[in-house]
Design brief:
Sulfite Reductase Hemoprotein, domain 1; five-stranded mixed sheet; 15 strands; elongated; binds iron/sulfur cluster; metal-binding; 4-hydroxy-3-methylbut-2-en-1-yl diphosphate synthase activity (ferredoxin)
Length: 358
């Protein structure tokens, strides 16, 4: 079943097109001090290598804004400057070559300042992302809605957006983040019905690796399944590079985009005769930098494994005395058990990958 995507208008950040019929784009944010050009460049490039397509950097002061210039010279992914309250930093970041801004026009000190930011964004052809966070909503909206509800978040976002529209600026993307999965989903659904701007989706402050991945997968997954979301970020209390694997796995699970192999492995049961958990871990490590998309199966018994994993392009099923390697359920090699298994599988995997490339 294909997902019917919400209709959104197309905008471009650097060389990445967002919204419209374009695929959902994976984003993240650096956690380095942006003034530290070397470290920031290193992290941006690691993110890009792991599949990040747009990177946001925090711009806290003028030095950070101007650091964008040397950073841009050493990276290829588009950059978004994350700015709170200070319109001068936004203008400096644009002059330094940033591709987009994340700034809320309602928080930068009035019409004159909004005009300056809008003029600079227009001059540079840059997108402005309005980013509303449930934790920092305007007080009047919190009072009106008796809390930071999804409705309050949507009204806040549209209020900021209107300030840009009033200045004939519509190169806009919107995000609405809450640490509550249900509020996040409700807010995006409401907003999605009220405008056609592309939406950046994610669950904020989702948590550490396990909890953050689960919350993000549920929230982002529900939204994507409903066709909502043009860019996404999995927010984890982790090295941001770790977010990439989760983000791409969410996209893969929904059949939206594919990057790198899918590894299926059986849950093990009373018939398992080998250390399947270690074997699956080894194979996952072996394939962690592979970008080709195919299906690998790691199964715990030779009797049921190949059949259960028939749809895998290549797979291994291990028993105490022997293991088998199969392609699409057909056995292509039988090996003795033990450490031979992994070595033989790696050989067959190399052949398989060479054939695909050839
Ligand atoms: Fe059990 Fe074999 Fe199925 Fe794994 S493949 S769960 S070991 S029956």
């Amino acid at each position: 079943m294909t997902i019917a995507r919400r209709k959104s208008r197309e905008v471009t950040i650097g060389n990445v097109r967002i919204g419209g019929d374009n695929p959902v784009v994976v984003q993240s944010m650096t956690n380095t001090d942006t003034r530290d050009v070397e470290q920031t460049v290193e992290q941006i490039n690691s993110l890009a290598e792991a599949g990040c397509e747009i990177v946001r950097v925090a711009v806290l002061n003028d030095d950070a804004a101007w650091a964008i210039r040397p950073i841009k010279d050493q990276v290829t992914v588009p950059l978004v400057a994350d700015i709170h309250f200070d319109h001068r930093l936004a203008v400096s970041a644009l002059e330094a070559g940033v591709d987009a801004l994340r700034i809320n026009p309602g928080n930068i000190g009035g019409q004159k300042n909004v005009d300056k930011v809008v003029d600079a964004a227009k001059a540079h052809g840059s997108v402005i992302r309005v980013g509303v966070n449930g934790g920092s909503l305007e007080r009047d909206l919190v009072e009106k809605y008796c809390g930071p509800t999804p409705e309050a978040m949507v009204e806040s976002a549209l209020r900021h957006v209107r300030m840009l529209e009033d200045r004939n600026f519509d190169n806009i993307k919107i995000s609405l983040k809450s640490s509550s999965v249900t509020d996040t989903v409700t807010a995006y659904r409401l907003l999605g019905q009220q405008c056609e701007y592309p939406l950046h989706i994610g669950v904020t402050e989702a948590g550490t690796m396990l909890r953050g991945s689960v919350k993000s997968s549920v929230g982002i997954g529900i939204l994507l399944w409903q066709g909502i979301g043009d860019t996404l970020r999995v927010s984890l209390t982790e090295d941001p590079v770790a977010e990439m694997a989760v983000a791409w796995e969410i996209l893969r699970s929904l059949g939206l985009r594919f990057r790198g192999p899918e590894i299926i492995s059986c849950p093990t049961c009373g018939r398992t005769e080998i250390d399947l958990i270690s074997l699956a871990g080894e194979i996952e490590r072996r394939l962690q930098n592979e970008t080709q998309s195919f299906k690998v199966a790691v199964m715990g018994c030779v009797v049921n494994g190949p059949g259960e994993a028939r749809e895998a392009d290549i797979g291994i099923a291990g028993g105490r005395d022997k293991g088998i390697i199969f392609r699409h359920g057909e056995v292509i090699r039988t090996v003795k058990g033990g450490s031979n298994l992994l070595a033989a599988f790696n050989e067959e995997l190399d052949k398989f990958l060479a054939e695909r490339q050839g």
